[in-house]
Amino acid sequence: MRVLITGHLGFIGTHLRSLIEDETPSWEQEFELIGWDTRTDHPVTCRDLDLIRADKIVNLGATLHGVSKEKTMLDEDLAGFVTVYADKTGCPVFHASSIAAAHRITEAEPFGYAWRKICQEDMILDSVKNHHTTCARFNNVFGPGQTRPSLYGEMLWSHVTGEPLKVHGDGSQVRSWLRVDDVCRKIIHWLQEESHKPGILMQEWTGVSATVSEFINTMETSRRLDCGAHFAGHLDHGADEPPISNDDWELLQITDTLR
Question: Which of 120, 114, 112 shows the shortest CA–CA distance to 101?
């Protein structure tokens, strides 16, 4: 089976490839994995998809930041290209959405993250005719290798650099925390399903409910992180901060105890 993974060099994409290789002994016989990522490739087009001829697509690629008002997302967005290809060929698609789209935020910033996720889902729902799409809404995915500005990435950065952790609010906000390996195992299960019925399957993927303070305390204890959290204001991060080295990440890859 030829599987195209868009965004394969991202946080979830790299974990997915590793888990397929580590936990699926016959993966080389089951899958021909094709990765596509704008970190190394040009933005994928409909012609690229026609040439790849994937049997299944895992769409983890980011939404397009610059969708214009004159054109639709079908014309310019990765999810639009994937949807057009899948409708034409019947190729099953796993689309990574966000819990932000579930709330149908009416005041979402135009062309902001939540707005783009809502538009993607609406486009897929309106366009799917001949193929099966699983549209999964992820909620607070975390794990080794995560970068800023996610809360867990900020915790790792704080631990490595010694900078105090600045957090939104007072820490009493309840969130659902989902481990990245659990996400990837569900995607692998989807890949191994033999058949898919045409249509949309909407799923909200949530994990353990805990307050922000509880999550921070658990990670500090289980992973021996020292963050010095300050619940005093807006999460502040610099766009040009240097990345954490591979050696630093290896120090932090300790077995999770949050279940």
Answer: 114
